């Protein structure tokens, strides 16, 4: 009962501060300004779909950034401000419950972020040109993980006489990372008359709607060539006649034969064509409306905002506001850059000590923040990729509740400490 009373009082206090201090209204105005400005900044690829995608990215992404930055800044200054004004002891005077104080204020910041994201989502729905396109499920081929493939290839690769000596002498973990990166970029080649096949056993058995193949073909020396061939999947099929070097979508039609759970492509071109199975081939299926996808993307965005609010409050419990804000922004920047560094950095066999150390740290940070940095609700929304309910609710439970609860408990323990 004491914890519940403290939580309610702490929530009311922080919410009144956000509303009366005009932070809420200023943030809502900033979100509205982003949505008003975004269409004028769009530079598309000359197609209506490209202009629409960039417009959603700018409007939703800018509003998301406003919500995250304001929530993080508010969390970083929460307890630091009271500590500087010598009011933190009065806030925690018994019988006040420390965890109730922290949780109540976190709930106020979470509601604050939720209102901003809901307002942004509503503004997206007001543009018919953006909200009229339904989203689609995206299914990738069922393939073993790149690291498992690398482990199977390791002995043969090291024993190969063509493998460089510097790679043979490198630690096994570095060689495995090298092979995993190669597997992610591996091309499968279809010569004239040959067939490529990919297992799509995860595709729904009783799917409603016509499946669409999304694929990007490539050719040797990055040449732009005509591609001709035939796709077959279950009781669907379709012919291909188009150019390489761009993502193509081919709706399949019903056919009399059953090709099973493997999507096959027969190359009828006079030249070789190549496909990266982990990056360049998907099956698409109609899902639901843009409005529902907007809702699911908003849930995923909210989970990140809730985590950053808790993270800012944790830093604020032991650091001053400037130090908390600098630390949080630095860590967020590192967490966002780490996956790109790991993916794009070449092998480290000839790298110096500083580069190797930086890459090890980047991999460590990327592994810790995998659930946060891999979330891409804005990109999925702009590309009409269905944000699955399972993904959105898992993000809310893991990032928004579980990790946040851990940080809030740590913050509650720290603010109880007496200053020396």
List keywords for this structure.
420 residues, alpha+beta, five-stranded antiparallel β-sheet, four-stranded antiparallel β-sheet
Describe this structure as you would to a colleague.
- With 420 residues, the protein is an alpha+beta fold.
- The chain is 58% helix and 13% strand.
- It contains 16 helices and eleven strands.
- The protein has helices at residues 2-20, 23-41, 48-76, 78-84, 88-91, 98-125, 128-131, 146-159, 165-168, 172-184, 290-316, 321-344, 353-368, 370-373, 377-382, 389-415, and strands at residues 136-139, 188-190, 195-199, 212-216, 226-233, 236-243, 247-251, 253-254, 262-267, 273-275, 281-286.
- The longest helix has 29 residues, at 48-76.
- The two termini are 32 Å apart.
Nutshell version of this structure?
The chain has helices at residues 2-20, 23-41, 48-76, 78-84, 88-91, 98-125, 128-131, 146-159, 165-168, 172-184, 290-316, 321-344, 353-368, 370-373, 377-382, 389-415, and strands spanning 136-139, 188-190, 195-199, 212-216, 226-233, 236-243, 247-251, 253-254, 262-267, 273-275, 281-286. With 420 residues, it is an alpha+beta fold. Strand 5 (226-233) and strand 6 form a beta hairpin.
């Amino acid at each position: 009962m004491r914890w519940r009373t403290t939580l309610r009082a702490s929530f009311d206090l922080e919410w009144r501060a956000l509303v009366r201090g005009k932070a809420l209204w200023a943030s809502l105005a900033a979100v509205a300004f982003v949505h008003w400005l975004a269409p004028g900044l769009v530079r598309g690829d000359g197609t209506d779909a490209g202009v629409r995608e960039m417009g959603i990215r700018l409007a939703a992404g800018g509003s998301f950034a406003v919500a995250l930055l304001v929530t993080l800044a508010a969390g970083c200054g929460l307890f630091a401000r009271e500590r500087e004004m010598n009011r933190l002891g009065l806030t925690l005077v018994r019988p006040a419950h420390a965890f109730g104080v922290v949780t109540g204020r976190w709930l106020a910041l979470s509601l604050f972020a939720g209102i901003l994201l809901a307002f942004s989502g509503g503004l997206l729905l007001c543009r018919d040109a953006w909200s009229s396109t339904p989203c689609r499920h995206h299914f990738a081929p069922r393939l073993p993980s790149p690291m498992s493939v690398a482990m199977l290839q390791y002995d043969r690769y090291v024993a190969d006489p063509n493998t460089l000596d510097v790679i043979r002498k490198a630690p096994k973990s570095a060689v495995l990372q090298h092979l995993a990166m190669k597997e992610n970029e591996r091309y499968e080649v279809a010569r004239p008359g040959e067939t490529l096949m990919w297992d799509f056993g995860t595709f729904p058995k009783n799917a409603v709607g016509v499946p669409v193949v999304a694929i990007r073909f490539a050719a040797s020396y990055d040449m732009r060539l005509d591609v001709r061939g035939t796709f077959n999947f279950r009781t669907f099929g379709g012919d291909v006649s188009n150019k390489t070097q761009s993502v193509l979508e081919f709706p399949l039609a019903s056919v009399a034969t059953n090709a099973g759970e493997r999507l096959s492509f027969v190359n009828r071109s006079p030249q070789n064509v190549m496909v990266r199975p982990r990056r360049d081939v998907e099956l698409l299926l109609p899902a639901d409306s843009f409005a529902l996808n907007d809702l699911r993307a908003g849930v995923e965005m909210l989970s990140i905002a809730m985590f950053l609010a808790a993270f800012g409050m944790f830093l604020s419990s032991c650091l001053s506001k400037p130090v908390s804000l600098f630390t949080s922004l630095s860590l967020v920047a590192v967490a966002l850059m780490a996956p790109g560094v790991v993916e794009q950095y070449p092998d480290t066999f000839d790298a110096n000590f500083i580069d190797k150390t930086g890459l090890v740290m980047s991999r460590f940070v990327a592994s810790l923040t995998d659930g946060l940095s891999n979330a891409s609700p804005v990109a999925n929304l702009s590309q009409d990729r269905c944000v699955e309910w399972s993904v959105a609710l898992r993000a809310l439970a893991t990032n928004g509740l579980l990790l946040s609860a851990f940080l809030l408990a740590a913050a509650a323990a720290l603010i109880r400490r007496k200053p020396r």
